[in-house]
Amino acid sequence: MKSVKEQSIEAKVLERLKNFPTCLEIVKYLFADEELQEMQEYANNVSIKRLGYNDHGPVHMKQVTSNSIKMLNILHEAGIRTSLEEEEIGSFEDSMCGVVIACLMHDLGMMIGRQGHEEMSVRLAIPLIDRTLLKFFPNDMHKRVVIKSLAIESIIGHMATRKIHSLEAGIILIADGCDMTKGRARIPMALNTHPKVGDIHKYSASAITRVKIYHGETKPIKIDVEMATEVGFFQVEEVLFTKIESSTVKPFVELYAGVTGEERKQYL
C-alpha cells in the first residue's frame, strides 16, 4: 500500500511529464511495476532497519525523480541542451526518459548493502531497464541503446565517486543531494536511539526543513536550503555541495542555505 506522501510525489511527477507523452507512459508503467516496487521497498528495509541509514526507498527515489524533472525542465526552458541533443543522437524527451528511469532505480543496490551500492544498483536495474525499453521501443534499437547507456551512467555516477560526462547524469547527482529534509531521517531517528559513528548525517538531515528548486537569478537553477539549526550546514556542505561540485550541471546552479529567519549563505 503506497503512503499518502508517495502518492503525492507520484502525482507531481506525472504532472511535470504531461508534455512528454512517451516518458509519461514509461513512468506510469514503472510506478505500477510490482517487481520494481518490491525492490524499492526491500532496499529501504535494508537501509533503515538493517543499516540505520536514511530513507533510500520508493519515496526517496520518486522525490529524486521529481527533482530531476524540475531541474531538467528549467535548463530546457533556459535553452540549455542536454548531451543527447548536443551530440545529435537523441531528443530532449530521450534524455528525460533516461533520467527518470535512472532516478527510479538508482538506489536499488541498497538491497545488498551500502558499500558500492551504485555499482550493484546497475546490475539489479539492467533487467528492468531492458524490459521497459523493449516494451516502449520494440523497433528502435538506437533509442534502447542510447537511453539504457544514459541511465546506467546516471545510476553509477550518483554518488560522485565516479567521473560522469553527460548533463543528464549531472542532474541526478544534484537531485539526489537535494532530498535531505527532516522527513528522510524521521524513521531511522526513531528506530536507532543508541549513538554511533555516522549519526551526524541523520541529525543534520533532521535540521533541514525545506529544499526549494527555483528558476535562478544569475544562473538557470536556484537551490535554496532552509534549516532549523546550524547543524544542517553539515548536510549542505558534505553532501549537496560535494555532489554539485562533481556535477556537469554545476555552471548552471546557484546554491543558498541558512537558518530560518537569518540571512542566507551563498555557496554558488
How would you explain this protein's 3D organization?
The protein is of the alpha+beta class and 268 residues long. The chain has a single domain, classed as Catalytic domain of cyclic nucleotide phosphodiesterase 4b2b. 57% of the residues lie in helices and 9% in strands. The protein is built from twelve helices and four strands; from the N terminus they run H-H-H-H-H-H-H-H-H-H-H-E-E-H-E-E. It has a four-stranded mixed sheet with strand order 1-2-3-4. Strand 2, helix 12 and strand 3 (253-259) form a beta-alpha-beta unit. Helix 2 packs parallel to helix 6. The protein is globular. The N and C termini lie far apart (41 Å).
Can you summarize the main beta sheet?
Answer: 4 strands, mixed
Number of domains: 1
Strand line-up across the major sheet: 1-2-3-4
Structural class computed from helices and strand pairing: alpha+beta
Using the alpha-carbon principal axes, give the shape: globular
Under the CATH scheme, which class? Mainly Alpha
Order of helices and strands: HHHHHHHHHHHEEHEE
Contiguous helical run count: 12
